Amino acid sequence: MISPLLPTYARAQVAFERGEGPYLFATDGRKYLDFGAGIAVNAFGHAHPHLIAALAAQAAKLWHTSNLYRVTGQEQLSERLVAATFADTVFFCNSGAEALECAIKMTRKFHASRGEPQRFRIITFEGAFHGRTLATIAAGGQKKYLEGFGPKVDGFDQVPFGDMDAVKRAIGPETAGILIEPVQGEGGVRPVPPEHMRELRSLCDEHGLLLVLDEVQSGMGRTGKLFAHEWSGVTPDIMAIAKALGGGFPVGACLATERAAAGMVAGTHGSTFGGNPLAMAVGNAVLDLALAPGFLEHVNAIANYLKQQLGMIADKHREVIEEVRGEGLLLGLKCKVPNTELANALRERGLLTVGAGDNVVRLLPPLIINEEHVREAIGILNDACLSLTHRPAKDAAK
Predict the structure, then answer these.
(1) Structural contact between residues 348 and 380, judged by C-beta atoms closer than 8 angstroms
(2) d(CA 210, CA 204)
(3) Within its chain, how far is the Cα of 238 from the centroid?
(4) For residue 105, which of 123, 88, 122 has the smallest C-alpha distance?
(5) Are 246 and 280 within 8 A, CB to CB?
């Protein structure tokens, strides 16, 4: 018999009732160090006073009006995002998948508005994850997400990750753009080398394509820059963001240059809840924190410390961990045991992580963590690795 709650998730049997900073507290009273951060969403931890104050103040005034009218919070947040990025304009929505849908539509509309409607195909990369809508699962191309939902949405040409020759071969008269995550998260925490990012930019310029970036997971300071593409010096045409932009409140955005967005006139796209006053109040408060002096310097310093400590653990437990990978505080442990075993062992000991492809355990802590939190996490990781190394042979063989 089906449960009242549609069983689309394989949930861990733990429920949380409150959070404080980088910690979560379960209904049974147990305390957990949260190195999953709601899958890179809670970048400023739980119950941050500045975010609470912004949400509470707005909640007492106005929740929703729709986009039939001006929303002053949208105007403020868009101006701030434009000032801090490559973009000239911003569309607000509710999630990363919606931000990608807007980016995909914008890419197609760009060429159609220039008299080339046949240019609608977008090159994507194996291992990518762009969302759960019909278009974004087609863009991601992963069989496990496509299976059972009928014909795949047309218009996406997938190439192997890191194969620049394959990218060149895929470009044709119908190609509209290239869509890529600067760091693949779901795909196994695989950063795109800066030289590849620069080559993709050059290919787009050479062939009249748009470079579209998915920074839903890698954005808002997670890699030590406000957005991950900044490390390569590349400027995209369109960028989708979400997750940490709301610090836990649902909000997404599609950023674009004036040129790329030229075809998106009144009536071409919309969202009932997108950019509502509550979301905009929180988004502006998040940006206060992300743009504060010294914040990104802190992310880089603590990320370097965490990565150094993880490297020592990997050297010590080579039977469990094959490699440490990633950028900033978007890190992954490539496992030699099933990644679920390591993630479960960590959770049993009070450390929350997130699985990923390529047998990787993701570490996505709040960006506010300090060295004490890192030492706590490393101690748990060491203990978990010991438990997997020293378990009975019959258990290890399972």
Answers:
(1) no
(2) 6
(3) 16
(4) 122
(5) no
User: What is the sign, positive or negative, of the torsion defined by CA atoms of 343, 346, 348, 353?
Assistant: negative
C-alpha distance from residue 118 to each of 155, 168, 170, 207, 230 (Å): 10, 19, 16, 15, 32
Catalytic residues: 129, 214, 243
Distance CA 79, CA 72 (A): 11
CA 294 to chain centre: 23
Going by the DSSP 8-state scheme, the letter that residue 249 receives in this structure is: B
Residues of the chain with pLDDT under 50: 393-394, 396-398
Residue 392 has a pLDDT of 55
Give me 16's structure tokens. Answer: 């949380």
238 in Cβ contact with 275 (< 8 Å): no
Q: State the pLDDT at residue 391.
A: 60
Which pLDDT value is given to residue 390?
74
Domain ranges of the chain: 16-34+294-396, 49-290
Contacts of 217 (CB under 8 A, 6+ apart): 39, 40, 96, 181, 183, 185, 186, 243, 330, 364
Return the structure tokens found at 132: 């759960």
Closest CA relative to residue 15, chosen from 3, 6, 7, 24: 24
Q: Rounding to the nearest 10 degrees, give the CA dihedral for residues 43, 226, 99, 283.
A: 60
* Domain 49-290 in the same topology as domain 16-34+294-396: no
Supply 369's token pair. Answer: 């963590």
Cα torsion 319, 38, 161, 205: sign: negative
CB 242, CB 275: distance < 8 Å = no
Residues 40 and 364: beta-carbon distance below 8 Å: yes
Token pair 């689309």: residue: 8
Beta bridge partners of 183: 191
Task: Tell the CATH topology of 49-290.
Answer: Aspartate Aminotransferase; domain 2 (3.40.640)
16-34+294-396 has CATH 3.90.1150.10 classification: yes
Under 8 Å CB-to-CB from 75, ≥6 apart: which residues? Answer: none
* Inter-residue contact 303 to 365 (CB < 8 Å): no
Cα separations in angstroms, 346 against 53, 302, 383: 33, 21, 8
